[in-house]
Design goal:
Strand content of chain A: under 5%
Number of helices of chain A: 9
Largest sheet of chain A: none
Oligomer: homotetramer
Largest interface: A-B, 49 and 49 residues
CATH architecture of the largest domain in chain A: Orthogonal Bundle
Radius of gyration of chain A: 20 Å
CATH topology of the largest domain in chain A: Tetracycline Repressor, domain 2
Shape of chain A: elongated
DNA sequence: TGCTAATCGAGACGGTACGTCTAGTCTTTTT
DNA sequence: AAAAAGACTAGACGTACCGTCTCGATTAGCA
């Protein structure tokens, strides 16, 4: 999140200037953190990055594209591999919530979801991204399946969907501070059900 | 969604004119349906309702407040009571998805969630509303508990949270067309777990 | 400029309430003094007078009418009668400038002239008022004529017009602080001309 | 006052587009002529000029600035030089009254004076402009002084002030149709005085 | 004495304009 | 060819006032 160089950037010839791209992405992140999605405008980003608006529009056709790239620049959430499905899922959610809470990622992803509600391209981008992540999350399930922890015929994608849904909703409603016990209980319900037996 | 009377509405004294309120709410709904959240502006609502902007701002301090009231005007989703938790939950989700898909409610609620990402008051309003709905959904669980279908110590609110999360995510990602089988499978995971036993 | 009574004024039957009229005129004057013509709105007057807007519109059909009455409530400018035309005119202008400078009259009259540039009725009202005042000012000239100070065939109205013009322009350009010497010189030009003889 | 080209104006790079400036000034003049000062709003000008409001505000910080430039675009009034002060002054007033009466200049200047009564910046602009014009008018007097027509010690600026005052007042009270005889009489008073001798 | 009629404060109404902000496009100049 | 710079049209933002309207309360004068 370092500031752009003092001297104004100039064109470096007939090709994309990576300094500008960086400055824009960093400015976008900073604007989002400082002013929130409400204050996130291309104008504001251009102002902060000392870039021209057309430079932004040339490389990112929409706010969504910019948001998506900012999000993807953020560090990945670690996916634990403890050998037990419970702990993997709880650990994953803990990491994810922490990541969303303590870095700019939460703001960025929230904004991306919000943007997707009014911008078709954002919706598509989000759908694509989510699909990728779901398969990613699905790995935890698949590993458990390989270990024989999962009943036959379980749809890993559907389980991943449920877990992701829970995470999304807590992100969107500012409830990223759930304690581990609650996460563990939730995972328990999912693994062992809630029915009396 | 009937059009307002031809004659211009006037003041009816030093108190709110319900005709104007109705016209504004209907216009808000119509704008949202026709132009989506992207085209949902106070100006557009005022234009369509043949109302002055100050009349809108007088009674609804923010877009969020207007959205919330539009959503609450929508008919309630029926909460089934079949005597079996599976069927209740599947039926509830089916009804909810149908309601969101086939009426304006889906657009409205999506917009409300999006708005809550940039507007503090919308976030509060949404939190309040969601709390109310969650306890509502929790009733299904509580009824099941009363029938002895639920294991001891299950947190009904947490289960309701999971179900609502699933619904929200499908709303936000334009996936309200899940077939009953998928819903049933999902509910099955929740009730009986996914672990091998 | 005493404040209205604490208790709210009510109707006193099917006739004009002089208390309200007074309160409105005083409020109009106060608003004009404190906020200038730019801040002079019927709303502001109604607010300050604790009066309903229709009460104002009922009795004064336009801002101009209100301004005119406020101006006419102001104390008259003394027209001196020293027996010498020079001193009468200089004294009159001194009194007028002082009156405009030190009371609210200046603001009010300026506003009236400004209003007359966009409001036909204000223009008419102003024309009528100015005619009355001109004949008034003309008296100074006529008295001088009676004393034989004036050459034969002089058009008193035209002279009054010139004097009033000078006063207006100084009012409109915030130059009401001319010293007596300048006024005396100006009057001297008018009385004895500027040609070399 | 030709209409703007059919095709929408675009930016011509990072500098002011003179086509837009022209269109705005012409529109301002047209609005003033057609709707008067009462109907003269930035919105109306922008609408008529097919310009964005920010484009207007970017170059003219206030209505006053716009009015002033519109006025200055108007053709200059010819200042006659007949060799006789009487004729010069009468001719100048005749030209000025004609100019104000028959072109849009009258409306514009009236509006400017009105605006100056509520807008500080307009007052300043007007003061600056008037100073320039007064020295301009003073030239007539100075020429006469050079010819020896004027008595010693006469303050040319003060005379110019008187003449301008007369013109202003007639503009502001819709009395621009004075016949030449009246003007000549007025100038006569100023040159030769009104006292009996 | 009870009724009528006009007045009062109050404030909502549909509108228009304000001055600012952003969107997304455009062109010029510089590298 | 791509960069910055910033102007361009367009239109939404939330607020202030406009002039009109309807209300409920008030009170004088007429019946």
């Amino acid at each position: 999140m370092a500031e752009a160089a003092e001297t104004a950037r100039k064109s470096i010839g007939a090709r994309r200037n990576p300094q500008s791209a960086d400055a824009i992405l960093e400015a976008a992140e900073a604007v989002l953190v400082e002013a929130g999605y409400a204050g996130f405008s291309i104008e504001a980003v251009a102002r902060r990055a000392r870039a021209g608006k057309p430079t932004i529009y040339r490389w990112w056709p929409s706010k969504a594209a910019l948001l998506l790239e900012v999000y993807q620049r953020g560090k990945r959430v670690e996916v634990p591999d403890t050998g037990k499905l419970d702990d993997d899922l709880v650990g994953f959610l803990k990491n994810l919530f922490f990541h969303w809470r303590e870095t700019s990622s939460g703001s960025v992803f929230r904004s991306l979801i919000a943007e997707a509600q009014s911008d078709e391209s954002a919706a598509l981008a989000l759908a694509g991204y989510a699909a990728g992540r779901r398969s990613h999350t699905g790995e935890i399930i698949e590993r458990a399946r390989a270990r024989g922890e999962i009943a036959a015929g379980i749809d890993a994608a559907l389980v991943a969907d449920l877990v992701a849904s829970y995470a999304w909703r807590h992100l969107l409603t500012n409830q990223l501070d759930e304690d581990e016990a609650t996460l563990r209980r939730m995972v328990g319900y999912l693994l062992r059900g809630i029915e009396a037996r």
